[in-house]
Amino acid sequence: MFAGGLGSFIPIVGYHYKALRLPSGLIEVLKFFGIGVILSTAMIHIYPPANDYLNDPCIAGRLGNYEGWPGVIFMLAIFFMHATEYILTSKLVHSHENETGYAVKPNSGGVENDPDNFAVHTSHTHVHGASLGGGKLTKDMLSTYLLEFCVAMHSVTVGLTMGLTPKDGTFILCAAISFHQLFEGFAIGDRLSRLNNDVSSLDTVSTSVKAKKSPMFLGAILYMFATPLGQGIGMAVHSAFSSKSPSYLITLGVLEAISAGVLVYVALVNLMAEEFSTLKFRSLSRTLQIYSFVAMYFGAAVMAVIGKWA
């Protein structure tokens, strides 16, 4: 709880209290380090156990002797996240069109005037935030809240896994979880903090700016308590499960596979694709850009090494 809270609140507090604000360059580097941690956590710490759980000999025959279930669930989680984000985003766009009577179209000033939503993909340019006015901010909020929901759900699963882990393996697992919660939290906190920062840049009344602080701090609090909540649930049901019972193995396997798919989607789509494509990132010095890439790779490498023990 402490590690997750520390990671998520540092960027938020820093954005609103100059005396506690970290250097902007350090914030950028730590944010990308956190992205690497999230991706590596999904691929090294979550998906392999899901594969082990769902292919354990103790559940042989219960899933049709099909070894591909972890991958199927993993892909379904990704497809579900993509469809959910598309549907919710479409509703926001259509809602804005109905209110104004105009179809949403790209910013008339070009993508250069929309730095937070400028995204370049392999063969085409995709504007993440069409000129929605208030709707643009709402879309940014939607993306951030989806990220928060995904990581919070994963945190509950991590806590559940920790609560069901035998005592002799708890210390190392706790250290690994605390480390990744810290930097996962930093990536989450950075996104949450920018909600209020973006609001303040619009022509809105001060009460609107204040209104955005509540969900921002609530998001950080939710993330901070998600893992302890999951751990408490795991400890409460520990006595009701045998570590080799089919129900236990299938439950954890499905949860882990879903979490892995969700986090991979979040890391690649909501974090990497967006963060590296903003004009803000492209306007950074070449040195800081290199540091950001290296930090992300290093974050992934560190979690991969920790995967040897937890």
Automatic annotation (TrEMBL):
Regions that span the bilayer: 29-48, 68-88, 220-241, 247-269, 290-309
Segment forming the signal sequence: none
Keywords in alphabetical order: Membrane, Transmembrane, Transmembrane helix
GO MF, one example: zinc ion transmembrane transporter activity
Membrane topology: Multi-pass membrane protein
Transmembrane as UniProt keyword: yes
Listed Pfam families: Zip
Compartment(s) where it occurs, according to its Swiss-Prot or TrEMBL record: Membrane
GO CC annotations, alphabetized: plasma membrane
UniProt keyword Translocase present: no
Domain of life: Eukaryota
Protein name: Zinc transporter 5
